[in-house]
Amino acid sequence: MRPLMYAVAGVFAAVSLLSAPVSAAELRVGLSTEPTSVDPHYHNLSPNNALATHIFGNLVEQGPVQELLPGLATSWKPVADDVWEFKLREGVKFHDGSPFTADDVVFTIKRAGNVPDSPSSFAIYTAAIKDVKVVDPLTVHFVTDGPYPLLPNDLSGIAIVSRKYGEGASTADYNSGKAAIGAGPYKLVSFTPGQSIVLEANKNYWGDKPKFEKVTFRPITNPAARVAALLSGDVDLIDGVPTADIAQLKKNSAVSLSDAVSNRIIYLHIDSDREVTPHVTAKDGKEIKNPFKDVRVRKAISMAINRKAIVDRVMEGVAIPAGQLLPKGFFGVSPNIEVPKYDPEAAKKLLAEAGYPDGFKLTIHGPNDRYINDAQIVQAVAQMLSRVGIDTAVDTMPRSTFFGRASKLEFSLLLVGWGSGTGEASSPLKSLLATYDKEKGMGPSNRGRYSNPEFDKTLAQALVTVDDAKREKLLQKATEIAMADVGLIPLHYEVSTWATRKGFEYTGRSDQATQAMDVTIK
Amino acid sequence: MSVFILRRLMQSLVLLCVMTIIVFAGVYAIGNPIDILISPDATQAEYDRAVRALGLDLPLWQQYLVFLSKLVQGDLGKSFVFNEPALTLVFSRLPATLELAFAAMLLSIVIGIPLGLWAGLRPDSVAGRSIMAGSIFGFSLPNFWQGLMLIMVFSVFLQWLPAGGRGPTANFLGINSSLFTAEGWQHLLLPALNLALFKMSLVIRLTRAGVRETLLLDYVKFARAKGLSSRRVIFVHVFKNILIPLVTVIGLELGSVIAFAVVTETIFAWPGIGKLIIDSIFVLDRPVIVAYLIVIVLMFITINLIVDILYSVLDPRVRLADMKS
Amino acid sequence: MSASQTEPLAAAPAPAKKAISPWRRLLSAFFESKLAVVGLVGLVLIILAALFAPLLAPQNPYDLTQIDIMDSKLPPGAESYTGMIYVLGTDGQGRDMLSGILYGLRISLIVGVLSGFFALLIGTSMGLSAAYFGGRVETLIMRLVDLQLSFPAILVALILLAILGRGVDKVILALIVVQWAYYARASRGAALVERRKEYIESARSLALSTPRIIFRHLLPNCLPPVIVIGTVQVANAIALEATLSFLGIGLPVTEPSLGLLISNGFNYLLSGRYWISFFPGLALLLTIIAINLVGDQLRDILNPRLQR
Fold first, then answer.
1. CATH number assigned to the domain comprising residue C195
2. Contact: B256, C152; criterion CB under 8 Å
3. Where is the ABC transmembrane type-1 domain (chain B) (predicted)?
4. Could you tell me the pTM of the whole model?
5. Strands A214-219, A255-270: pairing kind
6. C198, CA 20 to 30 Å: which among A500, B193, B247, C89?
7. What value of ipTM does the predicted structure carry?
């Protein structure tokens, strides 16, 4: 059977060399997740945002590792404590030929947070903006609520739409193409949910000329079917290559792979707050005090996990063991934090010290359709915890039930992931580790209810420091505090992978987006 | 007859009512769609806004009343995910699924009935036994696994057919379908086959069983003894008799083919309602789930009605009056 | 399934066999087909293997301390560091496939048989009652059937399990809810035809009790279609459970059924690690084929209209 498989792959490789790229002018992409709308302000969802980048373009753009680059704005700087000045690019035209001006920016900022029926609006990116002032047609002033260093990051998340077409336009008008007039490198031809999204080149694009006449995106959510579509030549590029197939695809000369470390950390959130936590009992089933309140127990769990084994065996080498919230190279990452060492003996000792020489009983929860190999990771962790004496059961479920229950704090130890949309450390620190505060909007995804006043103070200071170097130091310090205290248990950073047919090459991005602009023809 | 149909329709209304209540309660029990749809960065204030925007802050019974009052105006609500009318969404995906279902039923009947007849008439021949063995195999393959195997063999290895997706559509007699293009058929063949294999086995078995039973009936024996050619015996008597179970099955199974297209559509990236419903369930897009079910139920009711009427035509022993309903 | 069920037909065609007890006759009829015997032997072996899984399996695949992630995805015949041989290889978690299959077989059989049995019991009683009583009872039952059948089975199971959570008992419950209507519809259809036949009329005119007519006269003659559906449904239930696992709900991941093992292995199919889904797939295939072979022959010998 095994030689047969190789024979299949070999024969296939030979065949597809003959039937190499159809036409370089066309690109066909198989997507793992489908954009739900062309309206760039309807749903703040990665695939939607990636599609919007093709059609619309933002004031500030994000490069391959989410570094901020000039887009429709050529430069920006703070001109007062609470005022940012943005200079707009000259001579930019929308798809219909009408000019792009400051007025379109004003309109966009107003629209972004106010699309009716939005299940997740862009208001989080415009919340800090108190006022938008047009200084001249190519200069805009953003007045913020106090000092706000992250404004350029926030604006990199908002696609600019034309007032002419956007005024009074509904989401359906964007989907039909009527209002989908932007200043991006591609124009919308058609949007057929579930079937395809077709784009064509915008010949008048202000930046690098688009490389493809026509781009077709096809949602193929099943991973095996996606790989099959690539192998059979139905598509030229796929994202989310299943880890199981990577080794095999590497041997296939008709396919080339590319990857990029993502901004997504996979971690365990741990209930360090409640007196009694729902899924921990003594081994005989009796209720006990929440052991996770003791930092020694949290540390022991972190040490009991063999991160390298998870990366090698479950992720097939396509991930990076993690010791903090973002991988090296991102803004705010601390150089002083090591990946916690795997040491089951020391973990047992720590457990005994904390008063649990015989361990306890625990159920870990996790989603099974959200992150790469999520259910497998949970099981592997359970194995490792069982080895240090903690009787561990596993419960995984679809995200439709998981996230709701997780937010209602129904779990004790849970596997979650976090992608930093802004590409710097304040995003996970603020959302995952800051003390939960509904009013101030702090710790919205802090599902372990970790709380540390010293950490909160350092982070709060960082969030209002406009000076980049000073802010980075503060973010690093906050990360170090939380990691020493094991506020959560980092496991690994996801590595995103793409595969292309011979003749195409993809340059991976850390934000896991798949863009035609990053494809090169060989 | 018309009384019969009218009564059926009344009952169907009640049924729809019960069903929508169940779906509302069911989705409500599973979770809150906002938990899945909202960006993880969102603050509590943004969360609350989204919940209000979709009307999910009201008590369940009020949400249901809102739904009913809109329903009366023919409005099934907008999809939480796509922000488009749910019914429009379902109807835009329906043709793809119908296409797939009809192609699958056609395959299973066109191939299944002759094979079943053969196996029934010559039960002890090698061919007859092979057909039955094949039908058992057809039953036993797990659908999703079989789908991947088809892709592996026909798309990856042989490269004869595309691995998934729907081909281009063309317009014929006002119907827009990929059935009218050659490329459309290429795309259709594998998923239709995947969907058809199970039904084909069922048709083979039922036809064979029907034939074997019929051949032993007195009137067929008599017809044979009377010296009628065996072809005539087969086609007039046997065939007429086995039509009854076949109609039941085909009628019932057409519905289930449409419903069960979920798995096939997922594997072959077929943009039909099966794919839509499974995606909608995973993100708890209630308006779409409800709209889908209403459409499906109406379709089932129609099919069942036709089956019952056909029954009475084919088998005089069963009269519609018997059905009381 | 007692011999008495074949009573009404025994009278007519086969006077020669009168000396032998009906039970023996059934048995000998069953053994007429070699294929069916093979199926029966296979099925018995499979059931025994499932029953004695803890004795036969080299490891307990549900005990997390006995499996090791470092041994994951090993090919058949590989050796673990403790010296144990993984005859059929290991899966993504380092679980011995042979042990996994033996234990998984148990769960799949339990799910399939129990859900099929209860669905048949409930469905057939409903269907026969509907046909026999007619009137409001029939309307009520058949509308209920319509209600059930108008929900796609997979959807009902999905929603039910999403609400109920994971567990063998919950999967069985969901599968009963999904299946009973098929039995009801089929048995009613058959009974409608039977009801008009003379023997039921005469049984009625003899003033036999209702349950007696239903169970001793109506039921046996409606059994063939019910058994066809029954054999299909047991296999179906097992496959449906696998599909639910494929979609990510149903059984707990740490205690996989055959279906769950296949769907876990599904991800490795294109990468050449065939054994993770191939062997459980084979086990499932053989099980279902054995069930169908036996079911086929049972149907043939129970069918009154096929008596020679």
1. 1.10.3720.10
2. yes
3. 94-307
4. 0.83
5. unpaired
6. B247
7. 0.78
